[in-house]
Amino acid sequence: MEPAASRKSPTYYVHENGFIMPNGFKPEHFYSAQAYVPTESDIFIATYPKCGTTWTQYILYLLKNRGSPLEPGQNINQFIPHIEEVGKEVIEALAEPRTIKTHLPYNFAPISSKAKYICVARNPKDCCVSYYHHTKGFTKYYKFEDGTFDDYFELFLEGKVDYGDYFDHLLSWFEHRDDPNVLFLLYEEMKADTVGSVRRIGEFLGGDFLRNVQDSAVLEQIVTNITFEKMKATPSMWSSERPKKFEAFIRKGKVGDWRTHFSEEQSNRLDEQFNAKLLGTKAEKLWERFDC
């Protein structure tokens, strides 16, 4: 293991309470997001970063719009904004029903028993790899273009990355998986059974979302438009900036890609952390049936 003093580290914004956020987010929006009062028609997509957030955003957009894709030049965040990035005033200006993205752990997120929350979790090894590439890709904010995976792995394991410790975040939402207004999904099960997962989301949300998944033609169009090949073929949908920024959002989407980055020692160390944090919580069984 490389000494901490010699490691490269991304630049972050650290709030007074120690919570780590990306440099590009205005600090006041972090507190503004927590002050937001959800309405009963609000739908939140709640994830730790790089756990299928953008994919889930697009699924909800297509569900709401009967499978019709975004038009060239449109950005998914226009329709499903990131609350701690833009602040609650932007959210409040949206017409209801609103769909809102957040990476905040449960204890920081705007919570209401009236709103609905779709939480997507991804196995920590693939999350770590995807987060590393995301951090290297956004050079303007993180200044980590010369950082290595080994550098990033140590920070991820210590929880010293934006949005904090992966395992703490996971448990904060997992503990509420049986709440009637929470749908807890795994990224891996969404990949393995995309049609079934889209149906589950529609059934959970009800109303027009349910009617749309019950229409076989609409469901087929949704599933066609959310393939990674289809999404990556139209990067202007996600960002008007250079393709590298798009790549930071949607890279491979593969299950098990961590094997191309982790050493045996790193894999064992993350397994040890996994067991230390999750053993006895039932969350340790989440990925038992998946080859990840």
TrEMBL record:
Domain of life per record: Eukaryota
Keywords per UniProt: Transferase
Protein name according to UniProt: Sulfotransferase domain-containing protein
Keyword Transferase tagged: yes
UniProt-recorded Gene Ontology molecular function terms: sulfotransferase activity
Domain Sulfotransferase span(s) in chain numbering: 41-280
Family to which the UniProt record says this protein belongs: Belongs to the sulfotransferase 1 family.
Source species taxonomy: Eukaryota, Metazoa, Ecdysozoa, Arthropoda, Chelicerata
Entry-linked SUPFAM superfamilies: P-loop containing nucleoside triphosphate hydrolases
